[in-house]
Amino acid sequence: MGAMSTFDGRARVLAVLGGHRPDRLPLWLMRQAGRFLPEYRAVRADVPFLDVVRSPALCTEVALQPLRRFDLDATIVFSDILVIPDALGAGLSFEKRDGPKIERPLVTDAAVDALDWHNVCDRLDYVYAAVRELRAAAPSHALFGFAGSPWTLFCYLTQGQGGGEFASARAALWAHPERSRRVLDQLADVVAEHLVRQARAGADVVQVFDTWGGLLPAADYAAIAAPGLRRITARLRAEGIPSILYVRAGAHLVDLTRGLGFTGLSVDSTVDLASISDLPTQGNLDNTRLLGGRESVAEGVARIGAALGGRRNHIMNLGHGILPSTPPDAVSWLVDEVRKIQ
Ligand code: CP3
To answer: Is any ligand 1 atom within 6 A of the Cβ of residue 319?
Structure first.
């Protein structure tokens, strides 16, 4: 059928998520708008990160930068998972070298009580404005909205300064179980609302980033992280919004996460792709391969092609965000190599 030639990036991604066969595997990269591009660094030379995030025009500009250079199939709204803690009033700053910092971490009942849960998403209107602007500017690309998972947001909110294994956030689960449960439940409702509003603003699909989910053993993930994720997918399904769950270092959680109601799973490079065939997948390519020259990119892509066998319900992506030291040429090689999978 001639329809094969009418696939654009948006149709390719939606085909994968809808259970149809695309003409070829769609491709995008986590953090594709970011520091590996000189034109992004040029924008950031004059404007602090959070000011970019709060400006729909600048968000649109930096999201379009990778699309101008590379034949990618999707774009993701330029934002951050920490806009929710910010809107809750926990205080957010990005310091030069140390990454994000929450000014008032949830270390006491009083700090939890000080959070402002009322109409949180009304304070995130700049995100929905950025989605609307990007939707209009990139009509043939699949547009991803996103949010952090309740557990990953809890990690940052509780520990304050992101760090290593988030030991103090994990300890809070056992030391303050009731308080922790309450925060996780409330976060789930805000995350769901934030994702629904992004979809209403024009996002085709929403991705939940559970960057720190892999820190939890499977039984604790089932008890602590999974209930909120189920609430989120119930809401998204009721609204007909396709969704993807990304868990970093979550190979031990795949049997659990595949049953949480997400349309697809985004996996890092520790997961054996051949072990998931019943639902759409995304990711899996080791991001350091882009630092290893053309052959290492080709081999990584070929390995994913082999693990997929004949199935084509996969969105090519990295297992974690593109590293700032990645040479832009490596992304061109990746685009070429993905085209070779037939
Ligand atoms: O193209 C895109 O993917 C851009 C949109 C995006 C950003 N952050 C922009 C950003 C997305 C999807 C995120 C998600 C995010 N943010 C996650 C989950 C994904 C992951 O990486 O595991 C997490 C944990 C965060 C929190 C966060 N934001 C951290 C820990 C940091 C500092 C570390 C770092 O990489 O610099 C950020 C800053 C951040 N968010 C940058 C970008 C482009 C770098 C800011 C800069 O210096 O310009």
So the answer is: no
111/158 Cα distance (integer angstroms): 10
308 CA from centroid of ligand 1 (Å): 29
Instruction: Calculate the CA 140 to chain-centre distance.
Output: 20
Q: Tell me which of 24, 31, 123, 181 is the catalytic residue.
A: 31
- CA distance to 9, 76, 77, 117, 199, per residue, from 133 (Å): 18, 12, 10, 27, 13
Q: Which two tokens stand for residue 177?
A: 């179980």
Distance of alpha carbon 322 from alpha carbon 213, whole angstroms: 20
Provide, rounded to the nearest whole percent, the portion of the chain with pLDDT above 70: 99
pLDDT value of position 5: 62
Q: What is the pLDDT of residues 184-236, one digit of tens each?
A: 999 999 999 999 999 999 999 999 999 999 999 999 999 999 999 999 999 99
38: tokens are 């000189």
| Rounded Cα–Cα distance for residues 179 and 40 (Å) | 40
Is 235 in the active site? Answer: no
For the chain, which residues score pLDDT lower than 70? 1-5
CA 103 → CA 88, 159, 161, 275, distances in Å? 12, 10, 9, 42
32 touches ligand 1 (CB under 6 Å):
yes
Please give the structure tokens belonging to residue 10.
């948006």
Contacts of 7 (CB under 8 A, 6+ apart): 15, 22, 23, 24
- Model-level pTM? 0.97
Closest ligand 1 atom, CA of 146? 12
What amino acid occupies position 170? Answer: R
The string of DSSP letters for 34-71 reads: STTSHHHHHHHHHS-HHHHHT-HHHHHHHHHHHHHHS-
The span from the CA of 102 to the CA of 35, in Å, is 22
Q: Which of 10, 54, 73, 80 is catalytic?
A: 80
Catalytic residue, from 156, 204, 246, 268: name it.
Answer: 156
Contacts with 336 (C-beta within 8 Å, 6 or more apart), sequence order: none
Q: Which CATH architecture has domain 9-339?
A: Alpha-Beta Barrel (3.20)
Q: Is the CB of 76 under 6 A from ligand 1?
A: yes
